[in-house]
Amino acid sequence: MMEGDSMQQPHILLRPGDVSKYIILAGDPGRILRLANFLDSYEELAYNREFRTIRGSYKGVDITATSTGIGAPSAAICMEELIACGGKYFIRIGSGGAVQPYIKLGDLVISTAAVREDGTSRMYVEASYPAVADLELTKVIIDTCKELSFPYHSGLTRSHDSFYIDNEKEIVDYWNKKNILSSDMETAIVFTLAQLRAVKAASILNTVVEFDDDVKSGIEGYVNKEASTIEGEKREIMLALESIFRLEKISLKG
Ligand SMILES: O=P(O)(O)O[C@H]1O[C@H](CO)[C@@H](O)[C@H]1O
Ligand SMILES: O=c1cc[nH]c(=O)[nH]1
């Protein structure tokens, strides 16, 4: 537990007990409000810096959603503070770039593990420590995704710390040959921190950049509401919510 746990957390501005055990994480604060449209009811608990938190009900299940901002440092701060407030299950719903040519815009990638090319997770623990998803949570997500008939792929993600770099194409080509499916910036720290703090984490990425596309034009398409990427975002939101609903039913059965 972090020092001062009974106090308001300094970045997310929440206290222990303010959040539910189920937490959905997204980089973008705007995505949190788009998720809110799928809830029966909700309230915004706090919005400080990049960290917007809402708490609401989905089919009667108590759900919290928080934005982490871009990159591992702010995601780690956010997750540490959410854990101090009582978060136990974390599902990231992010946007990502395809590292394989068969992965199309709007396809979901359910990460089983992540390459730790970020700096933050290496400050926590040596590079040989695995960034791996919670198996039980991820299995529920995959089963739910099949039931919803959403196009998806499951496999490895690469999380990095650099968006606009000169050798991006070379890096993506390298990881393409190692059977990596997708790139993002937060999955590895979310998985690493979950393992270190003994909570459960999973990650779903909506593909917004295709393998042969450059990241800037791909993101521009998403920001300008390219139809497949908007559909992919809706699907990752529905998938996370339905998976939590299913998980809650399993835990009530005991
Ligand atoms: O859409 P989000 O969840 O922010 O995720 C991806 O988008 C951002 C870059 O555009 C990075 O945070 C990356 O991981
Ligand atoms: O290619 C991409 C797209 C989104 N986010 C990333 O980190 N990379």
Automatic annotation (TrEMBL):
The keyword Glycosyltransferase is assigned to this record? yes
Q: Which GO terms describe its molecular function?
A: uridine phosphorylase activity
What superkingdom does the record give? Bacteria
Question: What reaction is this protein's catalytic activity?
Answer: uridine + phosphate = alpha-D-ribose 1-phosphate + uracil
GO cellular component terms, semicolon-separated: cytosol
Q: Name one GO biological process term.
A: nucleoside catabolic process
Q: Carries keyword Transferase?
A: yes
Q: What is its EC number?
A: 2.4.2.3
InterPro entries attached here? Nucleoside_phosphorylase_CS (IPR018016), Nucleoside_phosphorylase_d (IPR000845), Nucleoside_phosphorylase_sf (IPR035994)
- Keywords attached to this entry: Glycosyltransferase, Transferase
The Nucleoside phosphorylase domain extends over 21-205
So what family is this one in?
Answer: Belongs to the PNP/UDP phosphorylase family.
Q: What is this protein called?
A: Uridine phosphorylase
